[in-house]
Amino acid sequence: MSDFDINTRNGLPPELAQMLPDLPRPEWPAHHAYDGLAGHWLDIHGGLKKLGKTVLSDCEQALDKRMDPMAHANRVGQLGNMLLNHLHTHHQIEDHVLFPRLDALDPTFRRGFDMLETDHTVLDALLNDFAGTANDVLRQAGEGPKDWPTVIDPLHQILVRLDGFLDRHLADEEDLVIPLTLKHEIMDMG
Ligand SMILES: [Fe+2]
Ligand SMILES: [Fe+2]
Question: Could you tell me the distance, in angstroms and rounded to a whole number, from the CA of residue 134 to the centre of ligand 1?
Answer without folding.
Answer: 22
